[in-house]
């Protein structure tokens, strides 16, 4: 992870903490073409971990985590990320494995990002 990717990871963590109340414990970012691919560990709050133990809890959390995160970015564009990269944010793809507490987010921008 180069310096720019590390700065991007810090912005993602701060953004999620500001808009969701908790950011991931660890983020690793890789730039590829016009994508910023973020691997995230330690996403779930203690309450979410409790909910995951209930019947249908994992599926409910997965749906909430993926759809809610995308909605937050749609309603609150990540201006700081755009400024850092000099690129416009277009879309976000999100998935999470509740059992492993591991998530992936792929940020799509309007131009190629600097490679490592």
From TrEMBL:
User: What range(s) does the Na+-translocating membrane potential-generating system MpsC domain occupy?
Assistant: 3-111
**Record's protein name:** DUF2294 domain-containing protein
């Amino acid at each position: 992870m180069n310096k720019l990717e590390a700065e991007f990871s810090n912005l993602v963590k701060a953004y999620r903490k500001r808009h969701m109340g908790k950011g991931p414990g660890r983020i690793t970012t890789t730039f590829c073409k016009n994508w910023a691919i973020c691997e995230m560990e330690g996403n779930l709050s203690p309450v979410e971990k409790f909910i995951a133990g209930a019947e249908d809890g994992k599926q409910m959390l997965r749906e909430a985590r993926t759809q809610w995160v995308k909605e937050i970015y749609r309603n609150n564009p990540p201006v700081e990320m755009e400024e850092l990269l000099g690129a416009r944010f277009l879309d976000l793809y999100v998935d999470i494995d509740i059992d492993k507490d591991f998530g992936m987010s792929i940020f799509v921008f309007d131009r190629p990002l600097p490679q490592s």
